[in-house]
Amino acid sequence: MPSAVDAATAKILRQRRKEVVAVLLFRGGPIFESSIPLSVFGIDRQDAGVPRYRMLVAAGEQGPLPTTGGLELIAPHGLDAISRAGTVVVPAWRSITSQPPQETLDALRRAHEEGARIVGLNTGAFVLAAAGLLDGRPATTHWMYAPALAERYPSVRVDPRELFVDDGDVMTSAGTAAGIDLCLHIVRTDHGNEAADTLARRLVVPSRRSGGQERYLDRSLPDEADADPLAEVVAWALEHLHEQFDVETLAARAYLSRRTFDRRFRELTGSAPLQWLITQRVLQAQRLLETSEYSVDEIAERCGFRSSTSLRGHFRRQLGSSPAAYRDAYRARHPLGGTLHTSPGPSPAPDDDEWPAPPPTPQITPVRAQRGAGA
Domain residue spans in the chain? Predict the structure, then answer.
């Protein structure tokens, strides 16, 4: 005979239907990221064959909620809406250095324990991490904030190269447009390819985007930071990752004391310089594992690690895998991938025109080509 507690839990799980979506908004949130789940899940498109979701827009704090552009939002629901939703979306968080409200974190944890699917778009991953929902899990966020997420929450396996990460009942996405990718993925998971493709056509966006955030990673600083003197130091560091240098070297190049350099660097990037440097070296190691035949020892040397043991330790902490296992898994997913560099020889960072050419595209009619775009 099932216990009364088991019966009550089963009842809660039955009530939490994934098609009931709560979108959690905060003060200071960016309007574009906030609008993505509202556009995907909050509009009735049954006339086009897209199954309907029930939308609950909830305030994570007392309103009204000021947002970008001088607008103010008033959410019709409070945190109680989370208790009725089977999918909870946190589209963004206003600051990667501030702690979300404890009441909100408690509500997210409770919803997850009761079977809700929790989704963090862009910096919304910081809210999920603060609630402990990303502990021991793979996750992503905007590449610019990934080092800060990895440093602040070391138990999270942060991969800044992915557009989104689906870990079952917890999902995260990279910046801005990647939120659309993840929301379409959720529709595809719930209702199949045809529904997701139809919705993508309505939104005039690709149904699926290939690749990840790789092409954006090398800048490693926001556009507005280009005028900052530290930007030159960052550029030098990225060009010399194959050399063994430390944070003291970077501070000296910036003509700053180590303490001042650490403070200025954290203000600019949201990350401590040592964590940023380790993350960049691990990213370079990922590139070489994917695109070369170098051994792990050679890759460690070419990425500025003092030994392959050091590379393996940092790689596993950030990605939850050994370099060799990562290479095997990548090649299993990309059997047609080519090799850019083989030992011996230099290993420059690949430009777009250095990547292997894609296989020839079969000839198809224009109508079918349009229907298959982005698939």
Answer: 16-203, 218-350
* Strand-pair partners of 304: none
Q: Are 86 and 22 in contact (CB under 8 A)?
A: no
Record the tokens describing residue 132, joined without a space.
């402990």
The domain 218-350: what is its CATH number?
1.10.10.60
| pLDDT of the residue at 332 | 82
Coil, strand or helix at 56: strand
- Taking every pair of Cα atoms in the chain, the longest distance, rounded to a whole number of angstroms, is 73
Alpha-carbon dihedral 361, 50, 211, 34, rounded to 10 degrees = 150
Residue 224 pLDDT: 43
Q: Does domain 16-203 have CATH number 3.40.50.880?
A: yes
Buried b / exposed e along 331-367 (16+ C-beta atoms within 10 A): eeeeeeeeebbeeeeebeeeeeeeeeeeeeeeeeeee
Q: What is the rounded radius of gyration, in angstroms, for the C-alpha atoms of the chain?
A: 22
Domain 16-203 identical in fold to domain 218-350: no
pLDDT score for 341: 38
- Residue 214: predicted pLDDT: 55
pLDDT < 50 positions in the chain: 1-2, 5, 7, 9-11, 218-226, 337-375
**CA atoms in the 13 A half-sphere facing the CB of 373:** 12
Q: Are 191 and 133 in contact (CB under 8 A)?
A: no
Q: What is the pLDDT of residue 212?
A: 61
- Helix spans in the chain (H): 4-15, 31-41, 102-113, 124-130, 146-152, 177-191, 193-203, 214-217, 229-239, 247-253, 258-269, 273-291, 296-302, 308-319, 323-333, 366-371
Q: Residue 234 and residue 229: Cα distance in Å, rounded? A: 9
The pTM (predicted TM-score) of the whole model is 0.61
127, 93 in Cβ contact below 8 A? yes
**Beta carbons of 89 and 22 less than 8 angstroms apart:** yes
What 3-state DSSP class applies to 91? coil
Residues β-bridged to residue 120: 90, 172
